[in-house]
Structure of 2-amino-4-hydroxy-6-hydroxymethyldihydropteridine pyrophosphokinase:
Amino acid sequence: MAASRRTSESVTGTAGHGVARDEEGAYLVALGSNMRHPRIGSPRRVLTRALDLIGEEIGEVTAISPFLETPPVGPSRRRYLNAAAIVETGQAPLAVMRALLAIEARLGRKRLGQDWQSRVLDLDIVLWSAGPWAEDDGHTSLVLPHPVFRQRDFVLAPARTIAGTWRDPLTGLSINQLHTRLTKPRHAPR
């Protein structure tokens, strides 16, 4: 049986307000790639193709960050190319996640149960303009905001260029504030 939860809190979007309609709104989507695709080519081309498919199959892509090269996390040795996009759609969060997973698979992503491996494409919903959400239908599980986005510079750095004023509904901090907290130098204790 599917379980879902939505609270009345909202993410402040670029227009300065949350979306009032029940399951419509804007999604902040993170994109990453660090492997060539045999037919499409470089990670840049993979991300560009993924953005095209998101626009065709999910909703209007209203903003795209610059593509940023970032160091790998975990055992992968290849640098990643990361980006973020704002997607507006009337689809519910789990439907959007399923569509993103289908785009990953279509572009060659194989989920082998290993975190931090090289991959042709990684797509994640980071935030939804209508607030927090949790759902598990037995096949796909989704928690919004993304549970660990606050600790990921490779998500926050591109996201701040297009959604810097969006607020994390759990902490109340903007993407810009979260990025500053994550990247500010820490002094060693004396």
